[in-house]
Amino acid sequence: MTKATEDPAGHVSDEGPGEIPRHVAVIMDGNGRWAQARGLPRTEGHRRGMESLRRIIRHASGIGVGYLTLYSFSSENWRRPAEEVGFLMSLLRFFIRRDLAELHAERVRIRVIGLREGLAPDIAALLDEAESLTAGNDGLTLVIAFNYGSRAEIAEAVRALAVEVAAGRLDPAAIDSDAIGERLFTAGLPDPDLVIRTSGEQRLSNFLLWQSAYSELVFSPVHWPDFDEARFDEAIREYNARERRFGGVGARQGVR
Ligand code: IPE
Ligand code: IPE
Ligand code: MG
């Protein structure tokens, strides 16, 4: 199992990633610090971060990841300077215009989670177009979390349930975990098996709080623009070394 592998980008790792998790979610962090460390403006970090994103999408698709969720803009990122927010919006426009046709040709299915309200109408339209064009594809499901915040998502689901109860269409006794899960932006998607955060920060920052209840968390010290295919495989190897128990005792612990 120590066969050297070389991916299309030419990055070499000593081993393959091992068993591929079905759903990998990534908190792409560290663009600003990557740039600052090089005396560049933060926006340059974001531009380079988008190149990382493109590589990782292709790599994940190539190694057979079923679902890849990328945290691209949080509902709290509006707190940044207007110029930076504007740049991030333009990057999304640029990404969809440039890459949508190619992703579609690679049978990638795009799903966007987050609030459409508050986005510029042309961005909301591009996101709709990306979803509808690729809805019938059977390759990697690429979930773009944009203007996404987990607490607002859960609040929205609870509000929807309350409306149904008030209208007499739902018995409060029927509200269970599935009833909430079905009303989240991620309805129909499996929970992430692995959540990766780059840049050394060790927190979730309002990302998939409900869905990551039993996800394995892997923190990489590398800033997102430097996060490449080999680092992605490394995170999967770390995932494979973990024992998921889901509250049980686990297979590795012998019964005595
Ligand atoms: C992640 O990089 C990208 C977004 C949050 C949009 P940051 O911009 O958060 O970079 P740091 O954390 O300031 O280095
Ligand atoms: C989380 O990163 C959001 C995205 C990666 C899009 P942040 O950089 O916004 O998170 P905090 O502020 O460090 O917690
Ligand atoms: Mg950050």
TrEMBL record:
Cited SUPFAM superfamilies: Undecaprenyl diphosphate synthase
Active site: D29, N77 (proton acceptor)
Keyword match Signal: no
Binding residues for Mg(2+): D29, E216
Binding site residues for substrate: 30-34, 42, 46, 74-76, 78, 80, 197, 203-205
GO cellular component: cytosol
Highest rank taxon of the organism: Bacteria
Biological process according to GO: polyprenol biosynthetic process
Cofactor note: Binds 2 magnesium ions per subunit.
Record-given protein name: Isoprenyl transferase
Provenance organism: Siculibacillus lacustris
